[in-house]
Design a protein that fits this description.
Helix content is 26%, strand content 27%. By secondary structure, it is an alpha+beta fold. The chain binds flavin-adenine dinucleotide.
Length: 368
């Protein structure tokens, strides 16, 4: 085990929080707590295959074969956009790109779902794909739907920018490593002690992604993690300003490269790329991308889904100073800022969290 402190504050912290896990959940919570005047220590091993570091960062108002509006989209998107724009302006780096998504209709079944759904889907969320709007090399025999409000977050860029900005601010520190639970945490004298670090805090928030399955304090939750794989590809000559989605999505990355994905595999929590994952993405891409492309990299991560498929936040029902933030599933970029806002206000100001996401009820098996 290794530890690197990017801010060597040390000593006892009053009204202080240790956040275990520095993915989208832990990082967005660090911002919110910091803004409410708390001292924060984020502990994370910074591994390249965490869900957040693998994620494509797509934010879409409508998803799935049945064109379902994302949970609390109208509330979550303005909060997410404001938060990421603020981090962008503080860091001077481009993190959030407005990029419409074109959903190509995949087959007659999906065309049937769309014919029904278009009658009720709010008009500000979609428009018809115009003829000639996509290059000829994109095969779209059944047409498509444009989702103009879609966007893409550079998730790794956001995590790294936050570490730099908050560490420099003096009220927040980042320790690189992994703590063992429960043995590395002890409660005495009204404080939680993170033993290997010599850190004492009044509160610990677990933001561990799918690894929270083994957390002994929050063991009543029903996790349903899904493995996802993504390819980095080169497509010489392809020019498209939209993210294109047909079974898999294809999105411009940096330096003329593209990313394509992703797979969903249940009951496999090994965050390693597989041949079958690569083959599945390539086969689906070839259904609509009529151009040669080359795979340059493959990544895999585990999405933290919890039964009910909505986030779960809040304080432990009986143990003082322990809290939880998880269940971002495949929507971390959209939902993390809204949920961290609510959790921080709960922890610092005592505001209640909504019942449908409250960990106390979800641990009892209540569904949202
Ligand atoms: C292939 C793929 C594609 C995706 N695409 C998208 C997308 O396009 N849009 C989108 O919004 N979402 C996407 N997601 C989902 C998104 O990644 C998640 O919603 C989000 O990253 C979850 O964030 P998290 O912080 O809860 O978990 P994580 O990112 O997993 O972070 C948890 C962190 O906690 C750390 N940790 C765990 N235990 C300990 C411990 N004991 N001590 C210290 N640290 C610990 C882990 O190492 C990890 O760094 C995708 C996911 C995958 C796998």
């Amino acid at each position: 085990m290794f530890w690197i402190a990017s801010w060597a504050g040390g000593g006892t912290l009053q009204r202080s929080t240790a956040i275990i896990g520095g993915g989208l959940a832990g990082t967005s919570l660090a911002w919110r707590l910091h803004r409410l005047g708390e001292s924060v220590t984020v502990i994370d091993p910074v591994e390249p295959n965490s869900s957040s570091r693998v994620a494509a960062g797509l934010i879409t108002p409508v998803a799935g074969q049945r064109f379902v509006v994302s949970w609390r989209y109208d509330e979550a998107w303005p909060i997410a956009e404001a938060h990421y724009r603020e981090v962008e302006s503080l860091s001077g780096s481009m993190l959030l790109v407005d990029r419409p998504m074109t959903r190509l209709i995949e087959n007659e079944r999906e065309a049937g779902f769309w014919a029904i759904k278009r009658e009720s889907l709010p008009r500000h969320l979609w428009r018809e794909l115009e003829p000639g709007e996509l290059p000829d090399t994109i095969h779209a025999p059944l047409g498509g739907v444009v989702l103009p409000a879609a966007a893409r977050l550079d998730v790794a860029g956001y995590l790294d920018a936050t570490r730099q900005l908050l560490a420099a601010s003096g009220g927040c520190r980042f320790l690189t490593g992994r703590i063992r639970l429960p043995e590395d945490l002890r409660y005495s004298g009204g404080m939680w002690h993170v033993k290997p670090l010599g850190v004492q805090v009044t509160r610990v928030v677990f933001c561990q992604g799918f690894e929270a399955r083994g957390n002994p304090w929050f063991d009543g939750l029903s996790f349903n993690p899904s493995k996802g794989e993504i390819l980095d590809i080169e497509v010489p000559g392809l020019v498209a300003s939209h993210t294109i989605h047909r079974g898999v999505w294809l999105v411009p990355a940096t330096n003329g490269a593209w990313r394509a994905g992703s797979t969903y595999t249940w009951h496999d929590t090994s965050a390693f790329p597989t041949e079958s994952g690569c083959a599945e993405i390539v086969e689906r891409l070839e259904r609509f991308l009529k151009m040669p492309f080359q795979v340059t990299k493959q990544s895999a991560g585990i999405r933290p889904n919890i039964h009910g498929f909505t986030p779960v936040i809040g304080s432990h029902p009986t143990v003082d100073g322990l809290a939880f933030f998880n269940g971002l599933g495949s929507k971390g970029s959209l939902l993390a800022p809204m949920m961290s806002d609510q959790l921080a206000r709960h922890l610092v100001l005592g505001e209640p969290v909504s019942r449908d996401v409250d960990v106390r009820f979800r641990m009892r098996g209540e569904r949202s």
